[in-house]
Design goal:
Keywords: Magnesium, Metal-binding, Methyltransferase, Transferase. Belongs to the methyltransferase superfamily. Type-7 methyltransferase family. By secondary structure, the chain is of the alpha/beta class. It has one domain (10-354): Rossmann fold (3-Layer(aba) Sandwich). Helix content is 42%, strand content 17%. It is built from eleven helices and seven strands. Strands 3-2-1-4-5-7-6 form a seven-stranded mixed β-sheet, sandwiched between helices. The protein is globular.
Length: 355
C-alpha cells in the first residue's frame, strides 16, 4: 500500500474500506455481546481484553474501528462502569506498512475523553505465521486482508500471460494453483490463530470472495481484468515490456463460501458461528447519498483506491516511471465501465469461536 499522507496514499484513498468496516459492525457487535454474556458469570470480560487487528494498514480507518469497539464495550458496561476492563490493541501488518503515519494519529485519538483505558502496540509481521504468545488474545479481527496471499502461487509461469488473475480463459492449472495457495494460507492462518487465541476466544473476518464455485466460470473481479487490459495496451505500444506483463500475477484469491467453510471444517480449531454476505459497490458511497451518479467522479475515486493498494506491487515489477500513465489509462477504463455497469464486491463476513 502507498505510505504517507500524500495524494495517492492509502490513508487518503481508503474511504471504501471505511464503508466496509462500518458494514461489519452488526456482526462485530453481536460477537462482542455474546462474549460478554457467556463470561458474565465471571463478571463479564477479563480485567484486560486483548484484541488484535490483523492487516490493520495505516490511516484513520484503524482508529475508526478501535473507537467503535471501545464504544461497544463501554455500552456493555454502562450499568457496571466501575468494573470497566482495560483494553490492549495490537495493530498488525507487514513490516513495510506505514506504522509511523498510523501512530502519528494516536495523540488526538488518545486525547479524547474515554472511560475505557486503551493501550496500543504495533506488531509488524505476516499474519500467515505466528505473531503472539500462546493463549494471549481474546479477540481478533481482520477486514479486507485475507484475500491477499502469502506469495504468488507456484507453477504459474507464463500459463496466464496477459492476465494478472483468474479469468474465464485461464487454464485449469492456473485456477488450481491459486486455490491451492489460498487453502494453504487460510489453513495456516487458522492454525496459528488457534494457538494465540484463548479457548472460547473469537474472530470476525471480512474479505473479498466470489459468489460462484468455479473461479473460471465468469469474471467477478473485473477490477483486475481492467488493470491487465491497461497493461496489455501499454505493452502493445512498447511502454511496458511484454515479458514483464507475461510474468506478472497478483497475489490475491477470492474464495467462494463453500471453500471457506470446507477449510474451517478441515482445519478444525474453530466453530463457524455466523456467515453472512454483503455487496459493496466499487464506489461504496453510492449507498450513502442521493446525489446524481457521476461516472467521472466515481471512476477516478475507484481508480485512486486501487492505486493506493497495488501501486507498490506494480512499481516493483514494471518500474515506478510508468505508474502515472498506468493509472491515468486505468481511470478512463473505469469511467467507461461504470457508465455501462455499476459493479460491487462480494464480501463474506464470518464470526468464529475458538474450540
Amino acid at each position: 500500500m502507498n505510505a504517507g499522507d500524500g495524494e495517492t496514499s492509502y490513508a487518503n484513498n481508503s474511504s471504501f474500506q471505511q464503508v466496509v468496516i462500518s458494514k461489519t459492525w452488526a456482526v462485530l457487535d453481536k460477537t462482542l455481546k455474546d462474549m460478554y454474556t457467556r463470561n458474565n458469570h465471571n463478571n463479564g470480560f477479563p480485567k484486560c481484553i486483548k484484541i488484535a487487528d490483523l492487516g490493520c494498514a495505516s490511516g484513520p480507518n484503524t482508529l475508526f474501528l478501535i473507537s467503535h469497539r471501545m464504544d461497544t464495550i463501554e455500552d456493555l458496561y454502562k450499568h457496571n462502569v466501575k468494573n470497566l476492563p482495560q483494553l490492549e490493541v495490537f495493530l498488525n501488518d507487514l513490516p513495510d506498512n506505514d506504522f509511523n503515519n498510523l501512530f502519528k494519529l494516536l495523540p488526538n485519538f488518545c486525547g479524547k475523553k474515554l472511560k475505557l483505558e486503551c493501550f496500543m502496540y504495533g506488531v509488524p509481521g505476516s499474519f500467515h505465521g505466528r505473531l503472539f504468545p500462546s493463549n494471549s488474545l481474546n479477540f481478533a479481527y481482520s477486514s479486507y486482508s485475507l484475500h491477499w496471499l502469502s506469495q504468488i502461487p507456484e507453477g504459474l509461469g507464463k500459463n496466464n500471460k496477459e492476465n494478472i488473475y483468474i479469468v474465464p480463459n485461464s487454464p485449469p492449472q492456473v485456477c488450481e494453483a491459486y486455490a491451492k495457495q489460498f487453502q494453504k494460507d487460510f489453513s495456516r492462518f487458522l492454525s496459528t490463530r488457534s494457538e494465540e487465541i484463548t479457548s472460547d476466544g473469537r474472530m470476525v473476518l471480512a474479505f473479498i470472495g466470489r459468489s460462484f464455485a468455479d473461479p473460471s466460470s465468469r469474471d467477478e473481479l473485473v477490477i483486475y481484468t481492467m488493470l491487465a487490459e491497461t497493461l496489455s495496451d501499454m505493452a502493445a505500444q512498447g511502454l511496458v515490456k511484454k515479458d514483464d506483463l507475461y510474468s506478472f500475477n497478483m497475489p490475491v484469491y477470492m474464495p467462494c463460501l463453500q471453500e471457506v467453510e470446507s477449510i474451517i471444517g478441515d482445519e478444525g480449531s474453530f466453530n463457524l458461528d455466523k456467515m453472512e454476505v454483503i455487496r459493496v459497490p466499487w464506489d461504496a458511497h453510492e449507498d450513502y447519498n442521493d446525489r446524481v451518479f457521476d461516472k467521472n467522479r466515481s471512476g477516478k475515486l475507484v481508480a485512486d483506491c486501487v492505486r493506493a493498494i497495488v501501486e507498490p506491487i506494480l512499481a516493483s515489477h514494471f518500474g515506478s516511471s510508468v505508474i502515472d500513465d498506468v493509472f491515468d489509462r486505468y481511470a478512463k477504463k473505469m469511467v467507461e465501465r461504470l457508465s455501462k455497469e455499476r459493479s460491487s464486491y462480494f464480501t463474506p463476513i464470518i464470526s468464529l469461536t475458538r474450540k
